[in-house]
Structures are given as C-alpha cells and as structure tokens.
Automatic annotation (TrEMBL):
Dual specificity phosphatase able to dephosphorylate phosphotyrosine, phosphoserine and phosphothreonine residues, with a preference for phosphotyrosine as a substrate. Its EC number is 3.1.3.16, 3.1.3.48. The keyword Cytoplasm applies. This is Dual specificity protein phosphatase. Gene3D superfamilies: Protein tyrosine phosphatase superfamily. It comes from Alligator sinensis. It comes from the Eukaryota. The active site is at 133 (phosphocysteine intermediate). Belongs to the protein-tyrosine phosphatase family. Non-receptor class dual specificity subfamily.
Length: 192
C-alpha cells in the first residue's frame, strides 16, 4: 500500500535567513546533489502540483486519469515538447513558456507569469496542474521553485528542500543564478 504524500502547510513561513546567509551557487548545487535520483515520469511536489516530463505531458489519457486540469509547458515550441490548445483541447488550460535549457537563457523573465498561472490553477477548486519540460528536472523545476518562492514566501533553499522530498531536480547553473537573484530580491522586498 502506497504511503500518503506529506506536504508542508500552504501558509508562508519565514526562513530566518538574513541577507548575509544567502547560499552560494556551490552550496545550492551541493544541496541539489543530495538524496537519491528519482526515476518517475511525474511526481506530486506540492498539493495538486505535479512536476514531470514530456512522456507524461503527451499522454492525454494519463493526464485525465490523474485529474490534471492545467498544464504549464516550460519547453513550449522546442523540438520534442509540443503542446497547446490544439493538442489538449478545451479540457486543459494550457500555458507555454518557450524556454531553452541553456545556462545563458533568461528564464527569470517568465518567473512572474508562470507563478501567476500556477497560483491561479491551484486556487481553482478541484484543479490539478502539471508543470513539465523535456525531462522535468531543469526548466520546469526552476519555474516550480520560483512559484514557491514568489507565492509562498519560501527561501530558495526551503523551496529546493520541499521539492526534493518528492522529486530529484537539477536546474542548470544559469537558472540557479537567476533563482538566487530572485531569492535576494524577495528577501530585500520583505526587509529580511
């Protein structure tokens, strides 16, 4: 019998970390390299928020069985990651982010809009959202981490720890720098 997933409260929590304690990229990479790698195509990493790959995203029947009502494709338009209203029809609300998994790609330009789309989905009664890219480890994971930081006031470290409880992730170094910058900006905004 499968164990029920345990998720943190949706209430915001302060990290207690001062600006001087913002981790280095090396510290973040070491944190990411802990734990065992996940082999699943999809994992629930926050209540009703699933992080997955293109195999999951391209299986419309599987999505229906999971109860997925929203899809955020973090690799929209790339060679193996097609999607959209033509593919999903009217049963799934779709948002495509045309990101490339390259360290110099500016994924931070999508942090706000992706967080809004995820937040809106999770505040829709009965909704479930799949956030995916090709493998479900870098682009999509980066957008999920940004969502947790922006909408739930989690620090970058806490967001990584939260997701890693359920799925192994590995945002590229450039994305980690952008997430670290977001962490600093959010801490400055709330005056930590």
């Amino acid at each position: 019998m499968a164990e029920a997933a345990v998720f943190p409260s949706k209430e915001p929590e302060g990290s207690g970390m001062s600006m001087a304690e913002v981790p280095t990229i090396k510290d973040i990479e070491q944190l990411l390299n802990t734990g065992r790698p996940s082999c699943n195509h999809v994992d629930e990493v926050w209540p009703d928020l699933f992080l997955g790959d293109l195999v999951t995203a391209h299986n419309r029947f599987g999505l229906w069985k999971m109860g997925i009502t929203h899809v955020l494709n973090a690799a929209h338009g790339t060679m193996f990651c097609q999607g959209g209203h033509d593919f999903y029809g009217t049963t799934i609300d779709y948002y495509g982010v045309p990101a490339y998994d390259l360290p110099d790609f500016n994924i931070s330009q999508y942090f706000s809009s992706a967080a809004e789309f995820i937040h809106k989905a999770l505040n829709t009664p009965g909704a479930k959202i799949l956030v995916h890219c090709a493998v479900g480890m870098s682009r999509s994971a980066t957008l999920v981490l940004a969502y947790l930081m922006i909408k739930h006031q989690l620090s970058l470290v806490k967001a990584i720890e939260t997701v890693k409880e359920h799925r192994w992730i590995s945002p590229n170094r450039g994305f980690l720098k952008q997430l670290r910058n977001l962490d600093i900006q959010l801490k400055q905004k709330i005056g930590c």
